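# nightly structure sweep
# worker-07 picked up a monomer target from the shared queue
# config: single-sequence mode, recycle default, output format = structure tokens
# input follows
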Amino acid sequence: MNNTTLRSRRAFIGAAGAGLMGAAVASAAPADNSLVSAVDDRADLELIRRMVQIPSFSREETPLAKFLVEQMKALGLDAQLQEVQAGRYQAIGILKGTGGGKSLMFNGHIDTNPVGVGWTVDPLGGVVKDGCIWGIGVSNMKASDAAFVGAARALIASKTKLRGDVIITHVVGELTGGDGTRKAISSGLKADYFINGEPTDLALMTVHATGISVTINTIGVTRHMSKLEESVSAIDTMYKVIDRVRNLKFTDSPKSNPEYASIRRINVGTMRAGIGRDVQTWRGGAQVPDFADIQVSIRYGPDLTPESVLADLNRELAALHAEDPRVVAEVVTRSRPTGQPVMTYEIPKDHLVVRTVAQHYEEVLGKKPQIGAVAPYRYYGTDSPQLQHAGMVGVVCGVGGKYNTMPDERVELTDFHAASRIYALTAKSLCS
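# output follows
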């Protein structure tokens, strides 16, 4: 973003004022020019570059957590490491308010996906080119994490007085089930409102999928290939199962509506086949496989339940067996961690926190945001259900998404720098 663009944007923000959404928003005041001007794009960009350069793959997040604690302490936040599991740490920072105001939690994870094939730049280089910052995890979701810190920097630099606390939780383990956010909540960290920064290209996601993962096995009859006529290949029957699963029809509930129905999606992620339940493959292609399994993720909205989804799945597989008795299938569900309920995420589109973020989005970017079950982000899982279950209320609004979880993952700098402004303005509106 060049200086001319920044001057134009700041001029626009100064002129935008409260007229965009009026009394529907917390403070209903004009955007704070001094706060917006205090956002340091150069410092934010250097921060995200350094974050990309520090690997933080699953269970390897501690070095980045230590770096973030140092950065937040240098700004004046009350920052510390929090141990989630033995030797595995996440970073917590708190910008203390003067008291008596509402608090806001910025929540984002620092664990990243592994590096796949197809990259044309160094995934750990922090490369800046073509108006983007490139690198593994920059979209999912280091850019939002850096923008949280950028917002806090601007609040401090502008000497903005907040009554409520701003809490930054840079958590671990979101990609593997949310261990870090659970730890933060169980340790007593809580706020009135939250913004979860999962990548939505700054759309305001107010509902997203929950889901279950299942294993489906098919049982065949093994023979040497010389006796194919006597065999039943578990691979052949699995093809039939996959086709039926992909076209599964869900039974609507009284709560079902088009928005909820739009969230439903099924993916077959892995498949194995061989001899026996331990999937022996050393016989190669000479013997007919009598066992195959697939891993399936089923995403759905707040109108359905795990029980209703499993009932639909078992109904379809029973119908398939009735049509072709050779198809013998088993559904194996994964057990949930002890005490962890099935949680969904949804917030009314007209809630105060949604309206507030939407106003500041419009002030900064000059257009209205998308709000609702926005595709494709609605198929995500986030830590928002855990935050909501703990009594907080918030919205999912984060940087990146367009180039998320793919080779050459990257984030457009215009959105990255806009996020720091939106987050800072929202914190002032909600916490003053």
